[in-house]
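Researcher: Predict the fold of Epoxyqueuosine reductase.
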Amino acid sequence: MQQKYTYKEMIKTEAKRLGFLSCGVSRAGFLEEEAPRLEQWLRQGMHGEMSYMENHFDKRLDPTKLVDGAKSVISLLLNYYPEETQQEGTYKISKYAYGQDYHHVIKSKLRELQQFITENIGEVHGRAFVDSAPVLDKAWAARSGLGWVGKHSNLLTRQLGSFYFIAELITDLELEPDSPVTDHCGTCTACIDACPTQAIVAPYVVDGSKCISYFTIELKNEIPSEVKGQFDDWAFGCDTCQDVCPWNRFSKPHREPAFDPHPEMLQMSKKDWEEITEDVFREVFRKSAVKRTKFSGLKRNIKFLKS
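Model: Structure tokens for Epoxyqueuosine reductase follow.
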């Protein structure tokens, strides 16, 4: 028991040193509460054309199917809230994409954490995950006591709101689990009321196929004309539900240089966005997650907003 606790504290101290906001632990096992919710969400087609969401249903709900002998899920949060945001009255991109692609930044930190565990605890097997495998990040982070899942389906903390990435180490090391925290959304419906496309169809339920992030990033075909005029100038992703959340008044700027935006991007006017060339796109978004939509996708989105 003492060892499980000591190891956990060592890992949390190292996670903090690596720049993570917080670190929590939960026992690896089947996510009983999430199973029927995920099943219903898929059955109702709320994943739209994101067919990958239908794959690996069992693995999404049970990390022991992803990592042999998994005993613990170590969840980590990394802040990305920027010091400066884009100028007013321009086409907007989601704050998480301002800097370098978070997958690479977090993966290298997770590798360091794994190395630390091996050097200080011994031969421990596990895998690192950053939003790129069938892992229900928010469910595990909530189980690990890092926050609660808000009505907009993002993880929330009273200290810092919701502008952070979630990552996991699923490992065969047995650690003392943390306790979940309580929900502090109360009667607030700010996110539901503000969603430009009414994608939050009920408290804690987001219809992914109606979300601006889905239309501007995941959807590969033309954006349907019935949502014209509803995007509030979002060209890549959307932060509206987070921007209006009262808990995000506590957001503090990150201290991760890799997440600093290209200076040119913050100054871009609507005209700059409309006239962006492939060379400028490559330079400004060289290491950014915006590359996911490709130059052609960004042009499509801007054309849709302009028309």
